Amino acid sequence: MLKMIKNITILLISMGSILFAGQNMSGIYIGIGSGLAEYRDSSGMLAEEFAIDDVEGYSQTPPVIIYGGYQFNRLIAIEVSITDYGEYRGDKGYKYEPYELFLGPNIGFSMFDAQFRPFISMGLAFVYGDQTNLKAEAQGWGNFAPHYSLGLQYEPNILNGVGVRVAYEQDLYFYDVSDSEDTPYEMQREYSQTSSLLYIGLQYKF
Fold this sequence. Notes:
Blueprint: H1 2-20, E1 27-40, H2 45-50, E2 57-58, E3 64-71, E4 76-84, E5 88-89, E6 95-108, E7 116-132, E8 137-139, E9 142-154, E10 162-178, E11 189-205
Antiparallel strand pairs: 1-2, 1-3, 1-11, 3-4, 4-6, 5-6, 6-7, 7-9, 8-10, 9-10, 10-11
């Protein structure tokens, strides 16, 4: 019995040394990435009211995300990101091209000699973009939006700060639509939409 307890203790210590050992993980990092961006008409009202068939899909131009921040320890970092979701074009002159600015916490856990770090980030982003079609105009098309992202970073020690990230992020935002700029505020309709991005990023930690 004592021998079994001793063996289990040795095993736990060995596992802990794999998970928790490593270098100082604090530092400034910056990265850039691209991937696949998707737009969805969450409310479903845009197609219904304005008879636009193609209001959902993937962007026709490549999305780009630039991100960076400061990692305090193996758990917490503060991150800022700028995302160009690319341009999507539907029928009847409809198109959109949202941009996003996010500043918030990045919470994760560095493991395996600080080389792998799964993470999640949540907060408010500011979304701004051009959205046009032949029958309506977007009003106040720049506002704060709930934002979340999750992913995995891999920073091999042999590369001295160079790493890669695979992540998914999404923004849910609202805007008012009217038939003209002269439409009274109480006659405008509010729509919800989401933009999401699955990307691979290349980064460097100083």
